[in-house]
Amino acid sequence: QVQLVESGGGLVQAGGSLRLSCAASGIIFSAYAMGWYRQAPGKQRELVATISRGGNTNYADSVKGRFTISRDNAKNTVYLQMNSLTLEDTALYYCNAVWVGMNYWGKGTLVTVSS
């Protein structure tokens, strides 16, 4: 059974930092491209960052220079370090795993940025 379990969300003041984690099980983690997506209230889900199985990264323009995605294949975990958070970063953050047509999602972790 495939599970992606996000953690690390919470309430943070604008300008602060959070580190999200996504622990994967039931998949060959090192084979998968991993990603973080988010969905703000009333908006569509959008890509935040992805990391290939080889470690190549891709970021949404809105988070470039502030967020860093990384992975630890030994721990089957992908991370999202979020710095300089703004009110616009408030959203439910989802972990995603993709490989050869297989696409899995976590249930999300809520990030709320306050002024």
Structural class: mainly beta
Order of helices and strands: EEEEEEEEEEE
Q: Over the alpha carbons, how many angstroms does the gyration radius reach?
A: 13 Å
Number of helical segments with 4 or more residues? 0
Keywords:
115 residues, mainly beta, 0% helix, single chain
How would you describe the overall organization of this protein?
- The mean pLDDT is 97.
- The radius of gyration is 13 Å and the shape is globular.
- The relative contact order is 0.32.
- It contains no helices and eleven strands.
- Strands 2, 4, 5, 6, 9, 10 and 11 form a seven-stranded mixed sheet that branches. A four-stranded antiparallel sheet has the order 1-3-8-7, with no helix packed on it.
- By secondary structure, the protein is mainly β.
- The chain has strands at 3-7, 10-13, 18-25, 33-39, 46-51, 57-59, 67-72, 77-82, 91-99, 102-105, 109-114.
Question: What is the strand and helix layout of this fold?
Answer:
Blueprint lengths: L2 E5 L2 E4 L4 E8 L7 E7 L6 E6 L5 E3 L7 E6 L4 E6 L8 E9 L2 E4 L3 E6 L1
Parallel strand pairs: 2-11
Antiparallel strand pairs: 1-3, 3-8, 4-5, 4-9, 5-6, 7-8, 9-10, 9-11
TL;DR of this structure?
It contains no helices and 11 strands.
